[in-house]
Amino acid sequence: MDLSAINPVLLIASLMVAATPLLFAAIGELVVEKAGVLNLGVEGMMIIGAIAGFATAVETGSPLLGFVAAAGAGALLSVLFAILTQFAQANQVASGLSLTLFGLGLSALMGQSYVGVKPPQMEKLNIPVLSDLPVVGPILFGHDLMLYVAIALIAAVWAMIKFSRLGLVLRAVGENHDAAHALGYKVVRIRILAILFGGACAGLGGAYISLIRVPQWTEGMTAGIGWIALALVVFASWKPWRVLLGAYLFGGVTVVQLNLQAAGVAIPVEYLAMSPYLITILVLVILSADKSSAPAALGRNFHASR
Amino acid sequence: MTEVLLSLKGLTKAYPGVVANDSVSFDIGEGEVHALLGENGAGKSTLVKMIYGLVKPDSGEMTLRGKAFAPGEPRQARADGIAMVFQHFSLFDALNVAENIALGMENPPKLRDLAAKIREVSETYGLPLDPYRTVGDLSAGERQRVEIIRCLLQDPKLLIMDEPTSVLTPQEVDILFQTLEKLRAEGTSILYISHKLEEIRTLCDHATILRLGKNVGECVPAETSASEMAELMVGSALTPPERGDREFGAVALDISGLSVPSPSAFGTALRNVHLTVRRGEILGIGGVAGNGQDELLSVLSGETLTEADAVKLGKDPIGRLGPVARRALGVLAAPEERLGHAAAPDMSLTENAMLTGATREGLVKNGFLKWAAAKEFAERVIKEFDVRTPGPENAARSLSGGNLQKFVIGREVLQRPEVLVVNQPTWGVDASAAAAIRQSLLDLAAGGAAVICISQDLDELMEISDSFAALNEGRLSAPRPAAGLTVEEIGLMMGGAHGMEVAHV
Lengths: 306, 505
Hints:
By secondary structure, chain A is mainly α. Chain A contains 12 helices and no strands. Chain A has one domain (3-293): ABC transporter involved in vitamin B12 uptake, BtuC, CATH 1.10.3470. The mean pLDDT of chain A is 89. In chain B, helix 3 packs across helix 5 (140-152) and helix 12 crosses helix 13. The interface between A and B is medium-sized, with 19 and 20 residues.
């Protein structure tokens, strides 16, 4: 066992990469849930995003186009959920679960010819001077563009919910859809837009895994990140910055346990592999003492006549 | 009458199976307080929803100051100077007062400016409010202030108020009326919806009466007696329940020093509650909604367990017994919420009869259900309480509110309770059904049972109860004999004006 082989700077840099897919998926789901919709299809939308982004990047040679396609594919799949729950009044839990199963199956079909292919690489940001700084350089300025987009998204969603009119209406719809309707807000339209945003974010998260984190395509490669994202939103009490904290914690433990595995620590690999899930949930459960902040209309369908 | 502000001509709206409004026409004058009077289900709410743009009429037209007026959505109605205070408050519990008010405005200013404006308007009209408090923590009266201020900030020409006094103490009603008088003096028209006749007689200039969706008459309330209006509203004369003389027996139920923490974040804690009720006595418990009524009911029914000695049946402690054990002993309860609490909406009446009647009516044998007996019991309830339904196999949800309420109360009354607890027994029930329910409670007491009736309808409590107590913020006032209590005394027992002040200007 040789722990000295673990470089703390590289560790922090790689935990940020490991956390980014989770960050995308969770911030999207946070907006969806703030609007009072529970979409359990995050995992399915992520994996569709993963394959759509991968395929597009391979065919066009541009990872950026891949991300655009991934967001589109995730949003497209979420349209299915929106139609089922907002127009057909289907149960949100059942619809979300079937969306996940459908996404996993469809992605396996779409990805058959891409197994073993190497995708084009995304350029890392290279700012002269800044990126060459010791310690700070690789941690803060040495990543790919999408990682910064994820963090910016957290900040933007936070500001939107806290300060903007749009955020207020979004919260109102998620709190009491009947009252929001009575005041003349378009509950269904706002919810559909939130669902689409959630789908696009989940797609981005998936593509981040297949294009940057891993980078290759294997069936079922999201490996439960979508579910962790769902749990993260709840345990983060629907607060964007806590989502960031939880995601980085999860990423951190993941990277540490991988390093420990490589260093040959005498703990069975299975325990190490489950540790990120356990520790993240444990910490967030402790943090989420203020449970009352759940949107009151979460998971309830709205129909104007009632 | 002065100039006409809003004129309705032949408004009709039909829903599948029911015509909610059948060519309703009337005019509202400038600066007039116009009453819209009618029983539950008469179509009042549908009518005002059409004026506010929430519902589109099937036919008919409206004119506002002579111009055609057909709001497609509330936003348009608000832009034309129509504001509405809803019956069931349209507020967001988790947001604060200022955010709630901002949601009801077209172009709200920055929150800080808005908060200052809220303070200013609320002071002017004597409705003090802290803009930064979370609405979920406010009392019913305070919530209504939020709604009213939300409307006032838009400078409305017509203010619609849907049953505004049903959640207020008598003192709060007085203050509300002074605010409305002030608005009228400023030239604002008010459409005032209620079924409380005395209120309308003191406040309104003109009244339109709806029955089964039709305009059945107009009158000047100050010149018409309450019973004349009631007859127009109901369509027939009403016989008030007969009390008869009763002897009170031994103490049936005894609660002493009961304190229960609030079951949820927005619930009410019960604080040091004492009450006794004797055999043959009806104890009426008044109070504004949300002051611990639901919590008290669940303590009495056994849904909330307490220390054994806190609740006693006769001399036996029953505080640790759950609802089924209490039913076996004869303590029955009928909660307020008909669909979901008192009855399972999607189950048939037979199944619902089984749910509470199993123990006392012997509908279970060795763990097996006796459906034939349950059906018989359900049929008995339907027959004796005149529940209008094709038969006991119908789902509870399919019954109208009044009919289901008759079934829910009848189901308990027919189980020969020793102690019966009812919460809002006639809420949303038309006048004749309400009279029948009240009569059945009186008959039950005459038969020697103790009855606790929790209600927000003070007239109802005065009509049937022998002693009266009021809940205020989880505290129960000392019970007093109901005969001879004045409205002022009752109001003070209910907590007075809750810090409201009379309009300053």
